[in-house]
Automatic annotation (TrEMBL), chains A, B:
CDD domains: ThiL. It comes from Dethiosulfatarculus sandiegensis. The lineage of its organism: Bacteria, Pseudomonadati, Thermodesulfobacteriota, Desulfarculia, Desulfarculales. Mg(2+) 4 binds at residues 39, 53, 84. Mg(2+) 5 binds at residue 227. The gene is thiL. HAMAP family: TMP_kinase (MF_02128). This is Thiamine-monophosphate kinase.
Amino acid sequence: MALSNSNTSETLTEEQIIAMVGAASAKQAPGLSMGIGDDAAVLEPGLGKACVTTDLLVEKVHFDLAYITPHDLGLRAMAANLSDLGAMGAKPAFAFLSLGLPKSPARKFVQELLQGLNRLGQDHGLILAGGDTVRSPMVTLNICLIGYCKGYEPILRATAQKGDAICVSGNLGASRAGLFWLQNGGSPHDSTAQKAIAAHLRPLPRVNLGLTLAQNGLVNSMMDISDGLATDLARLCRASGVGASVWSDHIPMAQITRGLAAQAAQDPLDWALTGGEDFELLFTCPPGNLVEIKEKAQKAEPGLAITQVGEITQENGVFLELPQGETREISLTGFDHFKQEPA
Amino acid sequence: MALSNSNTSETLTEEQIIAMVGAASAKQAPGLSMGIGDDAAVLEPGLGKACVTTDLLVEKVHFDLAYITPHDLGLRAMAANLSDLGAMGAKPAFAFLSLGLPKSPARKFVQELLQGLNRLGQDHGLILAGGDTVRSPMVTLNICLIGYCKGYEPILRATAQKGDAICVSGNLGASRAGLFWLQNGGSPHDSTAQKAIAAHLRPLPRVNLGLTLAQNGLVNSMMDISDGLATDLARLCRASGVGASVWSDHIPMAQITRGLAAQAAQDPLDWALTGGEDFELLFTCPPGNLVEIKEKAQKAEPGLAITQVGEITQENGVFLELPQGETREISLTGFDHFKQEPA
């Protein structure tokens, strides 16, 4: 869809965009005494410990309007943020949207973007409570979310214990496979690659899983996988002052990920370890909790697999154990957003 | 200062930027049980009603690195947000920074930006509690602030009453005068234009004034002036279901604003009404409160003028009363960030 539109009746002024964001937002709701429309939103006290997360998405860096629809862009931006709340075990409550749009944006673009944002938000009880709209040469979205842990503690990444089982939800690398497909000219509508495309464009944040794990006190540490298992597990280990041993042949990968990697002569394990943006949960737990965790996970998110992929060790560093008995250090091999391209 | 630097020893990786933002942030503080370094920050409950505001700033739209230093950029971004908390009468508490930077940003740029952000933040008791760093072709900053009103109500813009005095703090149009100077090739270091330049590059948010007005229950409605008195007063009136009469010869303007306008053959009144980004407070109050307000304001922000510029009326619309007895409607004549340039 064209972002700008030369038919001026279809393009929007600032006041119109503010009005549309206002219509997609709440003025009042439980816990929210003043929503959108003032200098700041006003939240009632007493909802428990608040978890706050913020994420910035920039066109051409995090998404390409050539292959993502405005609806999916809204949905994906919300998914990335909800994933962070899920990783704390917090119940989503309020969203604050900063939206940068080029001059004279098309009404349809803004409408569908807000629909995508709100669709996933509403699935998780989230209310759009405030924001800012500005002009920007690139479409830019910042979402700040507030969620609450009422009567239980949020799960940090700094509390992994030696001997913990390291687990992931779902499968890894599919988002990277979908991105590879799209960046290499594959159609966003291709039916064979659909699962990988959907994993990239419409990821599902594991909010319900995170909530159930935290509320039941079943895990010692948790985070979401946004920059790849290798980098994110290294961050968790560094924060906890521990190390990790990862079993390469246990890392869950979807059939489509292996298939697209074979087609592209890429290593699917590489996609699973460093691909990023899977938005699955990575957590560590006493091995004795695994059975109960899998049962609870089935109730929270039916059909979602939980897989142990290794264990927490005492020595620093994240080591990948390969089937041949080899060991490779994989700490910090993931995506660096600021790495210079080779000249 | 060069944003990128071909000397690679001076440019930063993502982990280095995260570490720098981490060093500028709090891990733990009163009310903050987990600061930067996890999927989300964790705030303790029980601090009162929370006011949340978010603002997005994009290079070339909101600032030009040709004439703003990284330090002043950080300070200005924080000022714009603090101004919103001031306009609610909330006490600043926590900041969440999303930072978009081009590839291989220079260490000095990031360092000075964070210093500018934190300098103004610390003046107001604000703690950097979380954030996100990403790559972006344009320098992009989103700041989300949380402040609290403990034991008193935040002041909304929707509660102006017929007969209220309309007041502004400080003087209007100086930021626009400074921007005009800079955009037309004036030196950022010129001593004669310094007050206007400072008003644009280093505005002072009226947090202490807003706090004292709210805590003492002296005003009926309040907001900050970010898009110009004409547009912002029209918003306040629309939200309150009232109108306004503005006395043109009472609008406070600095000598430098009049001087630069005369030099540029511009109307200083136009700058004061539609210039925007003054970050002064606009509030309405029972006329009988004016004396106490001025006394309290002197204690909160010594030397800051409070000026009545008109009164709230019953009929819709904002009308400017000119000295010749003429009246002009000025609702919504301010800056539209999305207005199309003439073809």
